[in-house]
Automatic annotation (TrEMBL):
Pfam families: Flavin_Reduct. PANTHER family: BLR2425 PROTEIN, FLAVIN REDUCTASE LIKE DOMAIN-CONTAINING PROTEIN. Residues 18-173 form the Flavin reductase like domain. This is Flavin reductase family protein. InterPro entries: Flavin_Rdtase-like_dom (IPR002563), Split_barrel_FMN-bd (IPR012349). GO terms for molecular function: FMN binding; oxidoreductase activity, acting on the CH-NH group of donors, NAD or NADP as acceptor.
């Protein structure tokens, strides 16, 4: 099968998200200028550079009460900071709860029964139960083609790791099993790993 996205695919559901998988989930916590907290998951997310450490996530869609975007991006515009929390398998239901299109005054931490811990380098809360959290300052917001499509780039200014996830000096993802987004309503979980040496290391 071949199709041009502009012409449509003719399938019951859009296959695009099912092709680009698995995708890590950036669980973005923000605080608005009014002090209100927000927490929402984004699967258009990844690390982009080592030195300095940088990452990105993209927001698609619009909430009518948020000036052409969603709560996370609106808060980042106001404050210039955000925190990326890593989602473990144990936190899957809490993450899903925070994915709802809740009113801007809703505190998703409270809604999902999650603890808040203060960030060290930015004025924002992080998910206390997360295996890792990345504090970020905004680098730029890039407007993408299409309605409500925005890419947020940030520099990591602080990194939290749960002590129980460190094994022999290595951040062990199998100690918490990261959640990943697939297509449609599907998710996956990392339960095994293997290593490969680069050609120059053999």
């Amino acid at each position: 099968m071949f199709y041009r996205p502009e012409d449509g695919h003719g399938l019951p559901h859009n296959p695009y998200n099912a092709i680009v998988t698995p995708r890590p989930i950036g669980w973005i916590s923000t605080r608005g200028a009014d002090g209100g907290e927000n927490l929402a998951p984004y699967s258009f997310f990844n690390a982009t550079a080592y030195v300095p450490p940088q990452l990105m996530f993209s927001s698609t869609g619009i909430k009518p009460d948020r000036d052409g975007t969603k709560d996370s991006v609106a808060n980042i515009r106001e404050t210039g900071v955000f925190c990326v929390n890593i989602v473990s398998y144990a936190l899957r239901d809490a993450m899903n709860t925070t994915s709802g299109a809740w009113d801007k005054d809703t505190d998703e931490f409270d809604l999902a029964g999650l603890g808040k811990s203060p960030c060290e380098t930015i004025a924002c809360s992080r998910v206390a139960e997360a295996p890792a959290s990345l504090e970020c300052k905004l680098s730029q917001i890039v407007t993408l083609e299409g309605k409500g499509n925005l890419m947020i780039l940030g520099e990591v200014t602080g990194i939290h790791m749960r002590d129980d996830c460190l094994k022999d000096g290595i951040f062990d993802v199998l100690s918490f099993n990261p959640l990943a987004r697939m297509g449609y309503r599907d998710y996956s979980v990392v339960r095994e790993k293997f290593s490969l040496n680069r050609p120059e290391e053999k």
